[in-house]
Amino acid sequence: MLKKIKDYLWEVGKEEDTRMNVPVRIYANDAIANTISRDRTLRQAMNAASLPGIVQNMLIMPDGHEGYGFPVGGVAAFDAEEGIISPGAIGFDINCGVRLIKTNLSVEDIKPHLNKLMDALFKNVPSGVGSKLKLGFTESDLERVATEGVKYIVGKGYGWSDDPELIEEHGAMEGANPDKVSRLAKERGKQQLGTLGAGNHFLEVQRVEKLFDSEIAKNFGLFEGQAVIMLHSGSRGYGHQVCSDYLGVLDNYRKEHSIQISDPELSFAYTKDKEADDYLGAMRSAVNYAFTNRQIMTHLIRESFSAVLGKSADALGMEILYDVAHNIAKLETHNVEGKQMKLYVHRKGATRAFAPGLDDVPRKYRQYGQPVLIPGSMGTTSYVLAGRHEAMVETFGSSCHGSGRLMSRHQAIREIPPSKTISDLQSKDIQFRVRDRKLISEEAEWAYKNVDDVVASIAGAKISNIIARLVPIGVVKG
User: Domain spanning 3-125+196-237+308-477 has what CATH number?
Assistant: First the structure.
């Protein structure tokens, strides 16, 4: 079924299933390709390749694994006129994403203060299931967050005026319509702005261990030994409820229109129908909520560093390097078989990786390509990459988003004792703060693929350039 096209690229051809409209292509080294074949990842990708209006290829990044209907690590692009929108191909945690915050400090500068710093971050940034932060936001504030995103919250004192320039979509995706968001979603989200959540979400203090491209690293503001902060979180209960609500709406839509589909979890609406427009309005509201959520946490992180180190965040150089989404659908223009097409690109567990020279890349990075942030699992390396021209041709400007699970959470709890992870973190001199002990097993590095292999696969396929490798010195989990 899985044929090797060339190094780091595999394919499942349309002859494998007559329902498929396009082939499935997988970016992976030999070892990762073998793991992808073990579960339902390929079957789910083949089902997605059968959806109406899909173009070119259904893609799986090297961190790909089985998900809800559509594989995590999947990318699918649909004709904006004749295609579809599918919440299952975006995910429950809409705009789950990653932000990297720089400092002008070396790790040696902060090591004497690291214990106090981790305590402050753990205290000031709420984490865990159902975590809340009472900032006194009103319903009107929430509506404006949904439509105006980061710029609105910066105007209320949560950040710096140049922060939005360093965020995908400038922290506010156009076309948001909070009227299409349910009352329950808004209630769930009102007190969760500025919270980390649980599961694989984290806040890490990291050291820039190695630079692979000194010129681009300098442009990105990175240097070896530097202390940086990586933040991984999403839209919390707000986005989860949006997805749940519209899965129900579109399941009814499927039945009303007698749509035959390989998997009901891939329920969709045609782009020209009201249901698709309603979902997109709600999804974009959740996207803006998530950008704002990470922005408020950035403010809390800056305050924590300032309080412990006795200097202002500005004096500490705590500028955002970049912020990327990896669960999202976006209307983009791409070249498909020599023709410029408007497409709804669905990325679920995949990161935009635009090439040098494009207007969507922040001006300060435009010569070198968009920063791509790839977090590892707990206690392992993370990476900063940069987009390449090849990605625009092959992957709709997309890259991987992390390491990708090998074990389910339940399997990890059964098979990986907390003591093993704790011993490993201690041996690496990594401080950690965890609210829920079972997360120590759920998020252990052995529950995930090797992020070094994942990133090497993307680099080997010439989809993104490796710029820097980061290692954790302190971890906060929910």
Answer: 3.90.1860.10
Residue 283 sits at φ, ψ, to 5 deg, of: -60, -45
Catalytic: which of 65, 232, 240, 401?
Answer: 401
Instruction: Find how far residue 392's CA is from the centre of its chain.
Output: 19
- Using only the alpha carbons of the chain, give its radius of gyration: 21
245: phi then psi, degrees, rounded to nearest 5 = -60, -45
pLDDT at 197: 87
What would the two tokens of residue 129 be?
Answer: 């299931």
Residue 161: Cβ-neighbour burial (10 angstroms; 0-12, 13-18, 19+): exposed
Residue 348 identity (one-letter amino acid): K
334 catalytic? Reply is: no
How do 371-374 and 382-387 pair as beta strands? antiparallel
Which pLDDT value is given to residue 403?
94
In the structure encoding, which two tokens stand for residue 209, read together? Answer: 């261990």
DSSP state string for 106-132: EHHHHGGGHHHHHHHHHHHS--STT--
Residue 79: per-residue pLDDT: 98
Query: What is the number of other CB atoms lying within 10 angstroms of the CB of residue 430?
Result: 18
In whole angstroms, give the CA distance from residue 412 to residue 350.
23
Consecutive 10-residue averages of pLDDT for the chain (478 residues): 95 96 97 89 98 98 96 98 97 98 98 97 88 84 97 97 98 98 95 90 97 98 98 97 97 95 95 98 98 98 98 98 98 96 98 98 97 94 98 98 92 92 92 84 91 97 98 92
